[in-house]
């Protein structure tokens, strides 16, 4: 089966359970069997959660209902008392005003399991963010907050400019929210959130929006990521030449982890720019100089940048020619991805996001807090229906609102992070210097040890290198689609059916 232009592959969104009408037709024995199955499934899920959650997670109030008495025993009495007090002082949302905003978030992701909430982990950026939003009474619930995220970063990946769109509590009614006086005296969203967020997750700024349906996900026109790496023994000029071959609108199925079972069958992406550049102008001309790869695109596939970086590292090590980029992008000649390991996620940073001035979504677009967004940073193009009335002739975007006090505090916190890691880096560098002197004095090696980039390749160092295009291949896209169609996970539809 092939994914042709007149066919459309979609997820088979079957109901997870039988509808009420079908359940009413079941006998008592069949209903009891279903209840027993569900209880057994819930028991398995609880056991899985108990194994994966940390002690701090287990003591969290959110899991009290799931674990029952076991969790109640773990929760300190002070927590129970404060919980009761919070229930008594429940916020009255019936008279609260709301405004639609963008929030710019910065975080260091190396201590977290990724950005998006996960069923088996409470240790994600999004979990901490929504806990803070609820605790500060800025939202009633995630489901009613009209929430979208700009991008979904993986485990250990950081962001300087993660942006979310969301409805937050406001002091002012909608008709006066954009008045200068209302903006200057509005709730200090960033300061309020940063007081309860972890120090390595902080809110930098907020922006009032004119359209209630403006989306950080659908109205983002480009995302820029930076991947930091040491020079080591890399040929930087070869990597820069290879970057030039990446800039095109092409099928990147050989530069990503394909997620066909989630309905992703289109791997065409428009890479707007790609460059390798030194982090600092004054360099030591050694393998310890730091560089970064910066890639800008309208959207990215799952692990796309990490896969691109893995191939660029091979080019930099002179194991592959820059032309391998063009060969891998030629999916007619190479329809199946060679087997290789993506570069690690730790050095990756969502550095910048750019947004269109005016949303393409119509004002009657359903506002939902869909928690089941796609599993990767894939922008789905949404266009306003022809003939739909424009919401406003004005720009939907306004200006980012910063607080001097908040920025000073943020700089202070980040400087503390820098001090901690800079001290460690300097200590390690001094040890390396002493070790290198000992090696030189005692053995006079022909070549210096230049292993700085091995970690980025997941510490993989084969005895004999096998060229990418000669390696075993992964399954083709067409075979994967056929597999999941047979499994009834995907459905093939004619475009005429969905028009």
From TrEMBL:
Pseudouridine synthase I TruA alpha/beta domain residues: 249-355
GO cellular component terms, alphabetically, are: cytoplasm; nucleus
**Alphabetically ordered keywords of this record:** Isomerase, tRNA processing
Biological-process GO terms, alphabetical: mRNA pseudouridine synthesis; tRNA pseudouridine synthesis
Top-level lineage group: Eukaryota
Q: Name one GO molecular function term.
A: RNA binding
Family to which this protein belongs: Belongs to the tRNA pseudouridine synthase TruA family.
Question: What PANTHER family does the record point to?
Answer: PSEUDOURIDYLATE SYNTHASE, TRNA PSEUDOURIDINE(38_39) SYNTHASE
| Designated name of the protein | tRNA pseudouridine(38/39) synthase isoform X1
The major lineage groups are:
Eukaryota, Metazoa, Ecdysozoa, Arthropoda, Hexapoda
């Amino acid at each position: 089966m092939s994914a042709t232009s007149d066919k459309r592959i979609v997820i088979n969104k079957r109901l997870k359970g039988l509808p009420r009408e079908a359940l009413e037709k079941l006998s008592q024995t069949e209903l009891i069997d279903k209840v027993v199955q569900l209880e057994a499934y819930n028991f398995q899920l609880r056991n899985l959660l108990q194994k994966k959650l940390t002690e701090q997670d287990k003591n969290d109030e959110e899991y009290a209902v799931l674990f029952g008495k076991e969790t109640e025993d773990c929760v300190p009495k002070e927590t129970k008392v404060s919980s009761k007090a919070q229930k008594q002082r429940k916020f009255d949302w019936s008279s609260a005003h709301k405004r639609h905003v963008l929030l710019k978030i910065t975080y260091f992701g190396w201590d977290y399991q990724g950005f998006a909430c996960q069923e088996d982990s409470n240790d994600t950026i999004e979990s901490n963010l929504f806990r803070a939003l609820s605790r500060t009474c800025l939202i009633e619930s995630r489901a009613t907050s009209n929430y979208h995220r700009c991008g979904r970063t993986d485990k250990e990946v950081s962001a300087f400019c993660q942006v979310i769109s969301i409805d937050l509590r406001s002091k002012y009614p909608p008709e006066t929210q954009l008045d200068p006086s209302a903006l200057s005296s509005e709730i200090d969203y960033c300061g309020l959130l940063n007081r309860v967020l972890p120090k390595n997750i902080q809110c930098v700024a907020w922006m009032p929006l004119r359209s209630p349906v403006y989306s950080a996900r659908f109205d983002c026109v480009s995302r820029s990521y930076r991947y930091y790496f040491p020079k080591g023994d890399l040929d930087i000029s070869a990597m820069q030449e290879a970057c030039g071959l990446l800039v095109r609108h092409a099928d990147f199925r050989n530069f990503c982890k394909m997620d066909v079972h989630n309905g992703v069958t289109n791997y065409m992406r428009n890479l707007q720019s790609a460059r390798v550049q030194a982090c600092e102008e004054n360099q030591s001309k050694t393998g310890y100089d730091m560089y970064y790869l910066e890639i800008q695109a309208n959207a990215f596939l799952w692990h796309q940048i990490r896969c691109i970086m893995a191939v660029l590292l091979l080019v930099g090590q002179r194991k592959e020619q820059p032309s391998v980029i063009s060969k891998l992008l030629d999916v007619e000649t190479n329809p199946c991805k060679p087997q290789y390991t993506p570069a690690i996620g730790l050095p990756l940073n969502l550095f910048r996001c750019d947004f269109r001035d005016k949303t393409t979504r119509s004002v009657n677009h359903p506002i939902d807090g869909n928690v089941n967004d796609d599993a990767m940073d894939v922008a789905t193009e949404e266009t306003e229906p022809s003939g739909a009335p424009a919401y406003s002739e004005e720009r939907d975007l306004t200006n980012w609102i910063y607080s001097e006090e908040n920025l000073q505090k943020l700089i202070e916190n980040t400087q503390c992070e820098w001090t901690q890691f800079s001290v460690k880096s300097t200590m390690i560098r001094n040890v390396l210097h002493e070790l290198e002197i000992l090696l030189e004095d005692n053995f006079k090696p022909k070549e210096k040890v230049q292993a700085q980039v091995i970690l980025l390749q997941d510490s993989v160092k084969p005895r004999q290198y096998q060229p990418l295009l000669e390696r075993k291949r992964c399954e083709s896209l067409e075979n994967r689609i056929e597999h999941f169609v047979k499994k009834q996970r995907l459905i093939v539809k004619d475009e005429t059916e969905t028009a």
